[in-house]
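Quick one:
INPUT:
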């Protein structure tokens, strides 16, 4: 029997303290919903429904555990003392901006958890993981250590998996993970072209850079990840984001482009030096044609693309060989974007279908379907070496929904986050979750 190859999507499970803090400068959706009341239970169930739907379509689907929030350990490092209730109260009253940051729900966007290179691309034939350091935002810079522990619990077998420490915690090596990384290939098991998209050069200020919003990914970080993963220069492309679209709210590349197999779906304003870089991708890809699907500004404006997250969609190869877009319902509700997608699936391209999903709780916090998942290309043996408890099944779907019903509040305001009882509820939920997913001790409160 021949070896099978998969692209597995590991979706971030929304945590029990899901909230809208509006912390992410440069993320238009996040800022526009700042401090609105959230529904942790609805958010978690929306995410689980998408995971189960993709599982039902025949996809291999995984679950990525949330982080603990509020982050009490960080507050103690910053000088807040007493019992946990005291720490929360002092932080909330004395430094509300810091307090809101350590309550952030941003770890739900698993596309920022790490960069992943499959064994077909790496020098040692192992799947390599490097957690993103997310240095550009304080609230996100709190994530890499826990993300690393979760990844090591999910992908524990050293025969198949190699884990790296995140890059140095410095803006020169700002790394945002898979949100700025795309892999094209003829087949998931074949060597592919890994595309690292960056916003600026850290050591050369003469190069183009945005002026309004920050460029979160640096060229130097992308090169470092490629070195760590043992990638070949002949199969790697470094592509700079257009600074003008970053200044229009395109904070990550996956807000303006998405790739899968032999398709790159992108907006015409997405990149610098587009024509030359697409030619480089095609040359490194080989004889098979890459389908470069360019959305013109006359068809969909950058503003509409950001508002609907047209490109923050999942582009999936279905079991029957066709390709489908997994889009948020915001795309369906926007007449220009909906009309574009209706027309797209009639063209002679691999993309033949659009499936719409309601992920409004995530969208309001600044992330669409693509933000919610980390893509990992695996073969049969590698998939068998993954912690089986994190792979979606009908039974796991039921058990996680019951777990959400048991532990999650229906509504949460920003003021609720200072309630010590919420911290107790959250820790109880996460402790039970690590048993369901067989992760061991990955949270600080379990380790200390």
């Amino acid at each position: 029997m021949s070896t099978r190859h998969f692209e597995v999507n590991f979706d971030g499970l929304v945590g029990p303290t899901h909230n809208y803090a509006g912390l992410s400068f440069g993320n238009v959706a996040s800022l526009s919903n700042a401090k609105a009341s959230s529904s942790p239970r609805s958010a978690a169930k929306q995410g689980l429904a998408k995971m189960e739907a993709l599982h039902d379509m025949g996809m291999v689907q995984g679950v990525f555990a949330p982080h603990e929030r509020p982050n009490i350990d960080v507050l103690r490092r910053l000088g807040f003392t007493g019992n946990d209730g005291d720490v929360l109260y002092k932080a909330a009253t004395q430094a509300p901006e810091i307090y809101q940051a350590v309550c952030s729900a941003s770890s739900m966007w698993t596309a920022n958890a790490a960069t992943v290179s499959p064994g077909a691309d790496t020098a040692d034939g192992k799947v390599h993981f490097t957690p993103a350091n997310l240095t550009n935002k304080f609230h996100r810079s709190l994530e890499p250590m826990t993300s690393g522990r979760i990844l090591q619990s999910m992908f524990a077998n050293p025969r198949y998996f190699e884990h790296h420490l995140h890059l140095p915690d410095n803006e020169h090596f700002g790394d945002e993970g898979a949100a700025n990384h795309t892999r094209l290939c003829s087949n998931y098991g074949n060597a592919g072209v890994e595309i690292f998209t960056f916003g600026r050069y850290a050591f050369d200020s003469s190069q183009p850079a945005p002026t309004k919003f920050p460029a979160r990914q640096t060229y130097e970080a992308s090169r470092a990840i490629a070195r760590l993963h043992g990638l070949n220069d002949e199969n790697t492309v470094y592509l700079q984001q257009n600074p003008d679209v970053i200044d229009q709210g395109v904070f990550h590349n996956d807000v303006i482009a998405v790739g899968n197999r032999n398709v790159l779906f992108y907006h015409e304003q997405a990149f610098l030096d587009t024509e030359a870089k697409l030619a480089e991708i095609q040359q490194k890809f080989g004889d098979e044609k890459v389908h470069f699907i360019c959305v013109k500004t006359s068809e969909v404006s950058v503003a509409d693309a950001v508002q609907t997250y047209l490109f923050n969609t999942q582009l999936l190869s279905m079991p029957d060989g066709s390709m489908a877009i997994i889009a948020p319902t915001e795309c369906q509700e926007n007449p220009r974007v909906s009309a574009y997608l209706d027309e797209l699936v009639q063209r002679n391209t691999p993309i033949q279908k659009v499936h719409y999903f309601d992920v409004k709780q995530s969208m309001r916090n600044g992330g669409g379907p693509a933000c919610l998942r980390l893509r990992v290309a695996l073969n049969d043996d590698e998939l068998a070496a993954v912690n089986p408890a994190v792979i979606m099944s009908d039974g796991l779907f039921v058990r996680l929904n019951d777990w959400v019903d048991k532990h999650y509040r229906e509504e949460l305001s920003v003021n609720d986050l200072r309630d010590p009882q919420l911290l107790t509820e959250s820790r109880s939920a996460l402790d039970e979750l690590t048993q369901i997913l067989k992760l061991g001790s990955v949270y600080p409160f379990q380790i200390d």
